[in-house]
Amino acid sequence: MNAVFLLLLPGLAADTAAAPEVRALLVTHLEFTEKQREKLAEAAVKMLGSCSSSCPSSEKDFESLFKQCHLHVKFAKPREVTADRKKIKVDELIVSFPTNTGGIWVRTGEDYHYFTKFQHEPCLEIQELLKAGKPQ
Fold it and tell me: pLDDT, tens digit, for every residue of 98-121?
């Protein structure tokens, strides 16, 4: 059996070598059930609450994040969160991906802030919860 497999392998390699190399990065929007949305929002708030660094940002920076991989959470009523040792009211937030180079952008009314230096555990929780999403 192994001998037959080895005899077929060179033929397959020749065909494969003739094929062009093609790579693609596909990004799609995901939709979630109500329960999944609540869990993702809570995990994002937890992640924001673990941040230990922040600086002012802008609406332009916030809006530009919609063009890259992200998690966007918009609350029906502002959520009060303590992040970087400050209490803030959060109207909406965006977690940019990948999280190892990203951060969290927050809109509070007309003010925008960028938060970073968050703990690892909330990132893992978000990654697990995102697996439940269905492509739109």
Answer: 888 889 999 999 999 999 999 999
Judge if pTM exceeds 0.90.
no
- Give me the residue spans of the domains in the chain: 30-135
Distance separating alpha carbons of residues 136 and 129, to the nearest angstrom: 16
Q: Which long-range contacts (CB under 8 A, 24 or more apart) does 31-36 make?
A: 31/133, 31/134, 31/135, 31/136, 32/132, 32/133, 32/134, 33/132, 36/129, 36/132, 36/133
Give tens-digit pLDDT for 4-36. Answer: 444 444 454 555 557 767 665 557 888 899 999
Three-state SS for 63-103 is HHHHHCCEEEEEEEEEEEEEECCEEEEEEEEEEECCCCCCC
User: What backbone torsions phi and psi does residue 73 show, to the nearest 5 degrees?
Assistant: -125, 120
